[in-house]
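Q&A log
Question type: sequence-to-structure
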Amino acid sequence: MKKKNVVMCILKNKGKILLLKRSGEDNLYPNRWSFVSGGIEKGEEPIEAAYREVNEEAGIEKNELRLKKKDFFVSTNREINVTFNTNIFLFEIEKSKVILNEENDDYSWVAPKKLFDFYLAPINIQVAIKLLGKLPVRKGILAIIYRNSDSFLIVNTRNENLSFIAGAIERGEREKETVGREVKEESGIDVDMKGIKKLPFVNKFTYDKGFLEGVKGRQNVYLAKVYDEKELKWDDKEIFDAKWMSKEEVRKNLTFDHVKDIFEKSLKYLEVD
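Response status: OK
Response body:
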C-alpha cells in the first residue's frame, strides 16, 4: 500500500471554521467540502507545508496565523490503496476574507455544529474531533421496514454493517420525509407516509468506524409496513446490498447489539394481518 504525507489545517475565526469546496475537477473528492489540505513536498517540514497550503488555498499569509494546536492522524483509503499520514493543525486568524485558487470553487465559514450539513471529504470529521474536541450529536432516523411479522428489510452498508435503513435529517426536512427518502434511496421502495409510525424509544450510539467514526448518534426509530413486491434497488454509494430477512435471520445477522435491542422492542408494534 502506498503512503502519502499530507497536512490538514482548520482555520478558526470568531468561533467559525473554514470549509473549502473542492473543484469538480479534483482527482480524489470532487465537489466535496474540506479543510485546507495538501501534500508535503520533499524536504519540507509539516508546519511549513501547512503555512504554504493555507496561503495557496485561502490567500492567508503565515504572519496572520496563530498556531493553537497540532496533532497527527493516520487513515487508509482502500479504494485507491493509499495510507495518508496527516499532520493536522488548528490556527486562529483575525480576518475572514479568503482568496481561492483553482483547487477550490467556494468557501464557507461555519459553526462546528453545522459540519454535518456539508458533503465532506473523508477524515475531516475525525480531524475536527481531534482539534476541536467532541462534536454535536448527529441526529437522524432508523427505519424498520417490514412486509409481515417474519420479513424485514436489512441493508449492508459501505462500512460492512448489517442494519436497518438509517440516515441523517437534511436541512428543512421533516423526520417522516427523511424516512421516505432514505427508504427510496436504499431500496427503491415508495413508503406510504401515512403508514410510517414513530416508536417511543431512541437509538443512541457512537459511530465506531467509517466516515463518522467517533461521532455520537441519536436516531428516532420508525416502523413502516410495505406491500411492495418489486425488485429491490439501491444507491451503490451508500450500501452494498439490500435484502429481506426472516425474524431469526435478523437476530443472527444484525451487526450491533444496540440495534438488536431496538429490533426486539419494536416487535410488539408490528401490524399483523
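Response note: The CA atoms of residues 16 and 112 lie 7 Å apart.
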